[in-house]
Amino acid sequence: MEGDALSRRAALLLALSWAALFLMPSASAQTEVPISGVISETVTIAASEWRAYRVTLGSQDSFQFSIQVTQGSDIDVYTMPASGYSEYTNPSAPSFGYLTSGTRENTQSFGTSVSPSSGTYYLVVDNIDVSSSGAPGSAPVTVDVSAQIRPFPIVGVVIGLVVVLAILVAVLVIVRSRRKKEAMRMMPPRLQPPMGPPQPPLRPPGS
User: Fold this and answer.
1) How many structural domains comprise the chain?
2) What is the pLDDT of residue 22?
3) Which letter, b or e, does each residue of 31-54 get, where b requires 16 or more Cβ atoms within 10 Å of its Cβ?
4) In whole angstroms, what is the distance from residue 85 CA to residue 4 CA?
5) How many helices (H) and strands (E) does the chain have?
6) Where in 26-101 does DSSP place strands (E)?
């Protein structure tokens, strides 16, 4: 009996350990995550580490994201082109390029939408002392990340153009109708032929 109780306790502890492992935020160490549509996750980024999200945008696409620190100190958030990411990951590079509209240093929360030219871009959640003006990255942080690519709404644009065209056609028809009516009102009345002098009344024969 005692052996069975110990076995059950061991099995319960093992199950709880596995549950705790799956429920904990995932660890992130210099990880690159591709995004093809929508992503939402909670990650723990250790000190002096980062997590990058790779997106490929079309000429009219936009990229929307929201970063929220739920535990820990400030972080840096960078949005950069592929060339800037290569510089960022190269320890020998003296600097790296990024999009100012999609970047914020020393922050607990940052969200925005960027619409650069087509190409590959990286959203980097930075917990490294990589910039003299950025966060120190001296302790682990837990971060909520949500991001999505928003394609150009071609269907909505087509519908909008059709509606505008229909309105223009209706306006032209109304204007032409009004002009036609005004032209008819301005036409001079038809002249009646002149009448001759009055004729004497006819007398019956033999009068």
Assistant:
1) 1
2) 41
3) eebebeeebeeebbbeebbbbbbb
4) 57
5) 3, 10
6) 26-28, 31-35, 38-45, 49-57, 62-71, 75-81
Residue 75 lies in domain:
25-152
Contact 121, 137 (CB under 8 A): no
Asked if the structure places residue 61 within a domain, the reply is: yes
The model's pLDDT over 12-69, given as tens digits with 9 standing for 90+, comes to 544 544 444 444 445 455 789 999 999 999 999 999 999 999 999 999 999 999 999 9
Quick one: tokens of 104? Answer: 């914020």
Parallel, antiparallel, or unpaired for β 26-28 and 75-81? unpaired
Residues 6+ apart with CB under 8 A from 78: 84, 88, 96, 98, 102, 103, 122, 123, 124, 126
CATH number of the domain residue 96 falls in: 2.60.120.380
Identify the pLDDT of residue 16: 45
Residues of the chain short of pLDDT 50, as ranges, are 2, 6, 10, 13-14, 16-25, 27, 155-158, 162-163
pTM of the model: 0.63
172 in a domain, yes or no?
no
Q: What pLDDT, on a 0 to 100 scale, did the predictor assign at position 63?
A: 97
What tokens does 56 get? 């490929």
Residue at 31 is within a domain: yes
User: Can you name the residues that pair with 32 across neighbouring β-strands?
Assistant: 52
Please indicate, yes or no, if residue 36 is contained in any of the structural domains: yes
| End-to-end Cα separation, the chain, in angstroms | 157
Residue 145: which H helix or E strand, with range? Answer: strand 141-150
